[in-house]
Structure formats: structure tokens, C-alpha cells
Amino acid sequence: MKSALITGITGQDGAYLAKLLLSENYKVYGLYRRISTPNFWRLQSLDIYDKINLISGDLNDMSSIINAINASNPDEIYHLAAQSFVEASFESPLATAEVTGLSTTRILEAVKLMKLDSKVYYAGTSEMYGSSYLNKSLNESDVFQPMSPYAAAKLYGYWISRIYRDGYNIFVSSGILFNHESEIRGMEFVTRKIANQVAKISLGLENKIYLGNIEAKRDWGYAPEYVEAMHKMLEYNKPDDFVIATDETHTVKEFLEYAFDYINDDYNKYLEIDKRFVRPLDVPALKGDYSKAKEELNWSPKTRFKDIVKIMVGEEIKRWKKYLNGDQFPWDVPNYPNENNLLKTYRGHVK
Ligand code: NAP
Ligand code: F7E
User: Fold this and answer.
1) How far does Cα 212 stand from its chain's mean position?
2) Domain range spanning residue 63?
């Protein structure tokens, strides 16, 4: 039986990846950090919580990493944990650099010093391209010009992974994943935020939706398919870097339009542009060319933009209906701060 260690097991990708690896008969270990209110709702909602071997630890702490590796003796390490919210990286640039950037070196150092054969997956991102979009589909050879502390930290992780691959012969592959969404996406990301607000509007629980830059374009795919690509990278015969994307790009406004189409309504009645959600810098557009992954890993996206919108809004409506019926399902919605909780100063960077 193969074993895998997943950092970021409580996040969107960690949960889907764990489910995939369990279905392939892996023994799955997950590193999670101790917080005052446990957040295993994703693992519970995918019905895999009881099947994961959980290891408590913080990625900023080398001992935690060594302990997790010792306990799991992994054939594969999927390093997914990060401060992954771009907006928050402007508020906490140093913490983001620590966990999103430096923790990658901690993992690789552990593998090197412990003389392990473990294969490592690094969670790179399309945000690393930043402003280099030239109305073309970006591939593995395109230039990186990060536009946020998050992207700069991720780019550090990407390069340090290449250095350990070339310098120490460690099998470390980086996915350059474009945005991927799902029913268990974090509520702060724009797709889930829209899906949730639209569901509430359709049920008469809300009458406004506050957003920032709705002209931004993103290449949105479906998360359960993207974790398959991660696994394929570690099954491949050599370590390498791969773009994982859909090769389609859409504005936030289009996401909004399709989401309101689902409930036969018009977003113009509810939308307010709110400076709290505008970033000091924002990548204007992203589109990814996944042909290398298609050719070498036999990976292609299946679920496309319009279907992702439908899946997400549909699921959110179901959840709110259950909630209104008194269902105690352990999901994050009722606990998430709403627009009234977010202080005006919360987005301290807004001029
Ligand atoms: P996510 O839902 O935000 O999950 C992040 C995970 O990291 C959570 O489990 C979080 O734990 C954990 N974490 C954060 N700080 C930690 C620390 N100090 N110690 C231990 N664990 C810590 O992110 P995701 O969407 O699943 O993304 C997975 C990875 O892919 C991330 O590295 C992200 O940056 C990258 N990525 C994501 C996308 C995307 O579109 N989703 C695209 C490209 C790259 P808590 O639950 O306790 O917060
Ligand atoms: O923003 C705009 C915002 O926060 C998408 C992470 O998984 O993907 C994600 O990063 C766009 C941006 O994702 C709101 O300005 C408008 O242009 O959903 P997001 P992201 O920043 O693209 C990459 C690939 C990652 O690696 C990251 O980890 O939507 N936008 N109004 C808004 N965004 C948010 N969150 N909230 C708004 O109200």
C-alpha cells in the first residue's frame, strides 16, 4: 500500500486529493494545524474524514514537518498548504512569505536531509505570471511577473523546487494551476462568494452583492479534475512543470451573469461595487495552455465554465434550503463574516 502525506488537508484541494488517493488505495496522512474551532467540514462533506490519518502541526515549524514525515513515511508528498488568498497577502505579506514561500524549502530540506525517496508535488499558480498575459494562452515557457505578495511567495517556492530538483536530484514537480473552483471552495474567493450570495438572494435572505474588480478575467476549471493532474505528475516518469488550465477565460462579470441566469434574475438589481474588495494590484487576465499536460500526462479538463457556475449555485441553494429546514450539516456558511462584519478598515490598503 502506498502512502501519501498531504499538507493543507483541510483545504479545497487537500480534501479532493485525499478522496482521489483513497479511491486508489493509498494510505493518506494529512497535516492540519490546530485552531480553536476545528474545520474538518470538507473532509466530512466528502465522507472521508474517518479514513484520513491526521497529524497536527504548523508548516512554519520545521519540527512539525519532520514529525509529519516520520509518522507517515510517505511515497508521495503533496505540498498544498498555503496562505492562498491573494487579497489577504496584501494585508499579511510577511506571514504569506513564511507559509506560502519558505515552507516549501522546509519540506524539501527535510526530504534532502532525511535522505528520502519521496516524490514531492508543489502547488504553483497562474498568479506567478502576473502581468505577463499578452492576450495569449500562457505555457510553461512564459515569463513570470508576479503582482502580489502571494504570487511572489509562490514564485519563490517554484524556483526553490527547481533548484532542489536539479541540484539534489529530488523528484519534485510543480503544477502551474490556474483557478479551480468547486462546491467546497473557500467562501472568500469570488466564485463561491457569488454562488452563495445568489443562492441567498433567490431565497429572499439577501438583497445585495458587494464586489470589487468585476472586469478581471480568469481561467476557471473544476477542482476535482485538477487534483487528478497533481497525482499524474507524481506518477510520471520524470519530475517537471505543467500548466493545468482550461484555455478559456471569462470575466467576473460573466460569472455573475450566468449565476443570476440560473435563478432567472438580473445582477444589475443587486450589485454594488465596493472598494473593500479592490486590490492594490490585480492580475487583469489569465488563460492557460495545457497542451503539455495533455500530451505527456494525458490530462484534459472536462467541466467547463458554464457548468461550474451551475454546479456551484445549485449546491449553494440546496445548502441554504437545508439550513432553513434546521439541518446541522457542518459547513462553513453560517460562520463566515458577512459584509456588515467586515470593518471598513479591514481592507487597510484601499486608498
Ligand atoms: P485553501 O482551500 O486555502 O487551503 C489551504 C490549506 O493550507 C488549508 O488546509 C490551510 O489550513 C492550510 N494552511 C495554511 N497555513 C497553514 C499553516 N501555517 N500550517 C499548516 N497548514 C496551513 O487552498 P486550495 O484552494 O485548496 O489550494 C491548494 C494549494 O494550491 C494552495 O497552495 C494554493 O495556493 C494553490 N493554488 C490554488 C489554486 C486554486 O484556484 N484553488 C490555484 C493555484 C494554486 P486551514 O484550513 O487551517 O486554514
Ligand atoms: O479573485 C476579482 C479579484 O480571490 C478572482 C486563488 O485560489 O486563484 C485564486 O486567486 C478575481 C480577482 O481568486 C471580488 O480581484 C472582484 O481579479 O477568487 P479570487 P484569485 O485572486 O484569482 C489563483 C490561481 C491562486 O493561486 C489563488 O490561491 O475576482 N474580484 N470582486 C473579487 N475577488 C474576491 N475574492 N472577492 C470579491 O469581492
Assistant:
1) 20
2) 3-181+220-244
